[in-house]
Amino acid sequence: MTEDKKKVVALLSGGLDSQLAVRMMQEQGFDVSAVAIKTPFCDFDCGRGCGFEIRERADDLNVNLKTVYLGDEYIEMLKHPKHGMGAGFNPCVDCRSMMFEAAKKHMDEIGAEFIISGEVLGQRPMSQHAPALRTIEKDTGLLGKIVRPLSAGLLPETDPEKEGLIKREDLGMIRGRTRKAQFEMAKKYGIENPPNAGGGCLLTDPAFGLRTKDLFDHIENPTINDIDLLKIGRHLRLDEETKLVVGRNKDENEMIKAIALPNDILLEARDHMGPVSILRGKNADDHISLASSVTLRYSDAPKDTQNYVRVTKDKKQDEVIAYSAKEESYIKFRI
Ligand code: SF4
User: Fold this and answer.
1) Which atom of ligand 1 has the smallest separation from the CA of 37?
2) CA 200 to ligand 1 centroid distance, Å
3) Where are the alpha helices (DSSP H) in the chain?
């Protein structure tokens, strides 16, 4: 009966490992509640509809799902992550700490005994080696309170083990990046079409990491709007204060228009199909000429004649005439 079951909180990512962790705990008689974390860099809607998917996973697992959004506080952490960045612009240790803090809050709210996650020892270079797991526990005040069921047999004894709530022989001993053991477990638990490893975290993407670094290097307080703009288009850093972003397709053009703020300048070829571009920054007005040429370069406008570009700022429209830019004139600005 549910009311007699001890509660645990699971950090659910939608990936296979966290689903297996939930199943293992359910099998051992726990009532599992899930917490899913949304950040500006993994918003579950990265083109694959994973917001929808994580809810489906929670339903499949028969667990309650609480989604926690880490917005401004996440951006604040990104400015100076205590434990540094990985190979991209990914502050995995600090990020995981924030996730566990959110799970801890939920644990306290619902009176759960401990937290579980699908982390596998040695699976990810930055945040899933033993010292990093320990650091995260210490930073969050959760020492002994986090159980990683897939690898717990290889990790130090946790409080629930000491208290007899779980037994070591019921815990996994999975290590490393190979996923054979997980696929076997998926079969055992009837998890069909297990998802591939690796989530939708944009911060581990090298190209996105460069754009994010550039943003944080040039803007003291980036906004969610600035970050949304990082997710689309070709990016050019024109000066310390100003950027140009050029849409790559119809959807991105629409997004650029939706993201534009009153001080931004939008550009598009007047008479030809092509991108919508956005100039953002203090010196945006000084770059209209180059931005017009670059916008024409990615449009269907003939390259050997001058063409009109429509320039819109704060709902006021103007037109400029320009030649299409030669790649060598702007390639140095590409981020
Ligand atoms: S990969 Fe992204 S979401 Fe995952 S811990 Fe690292 S920064 Fe956080």
Assistant:
1) 3
2) 9
3) 16-27, 50-61, 72-79, 92-110, 130-140, 159-162, 180-188, 206-218, 224-230, 250-259, 288-297, 327-330
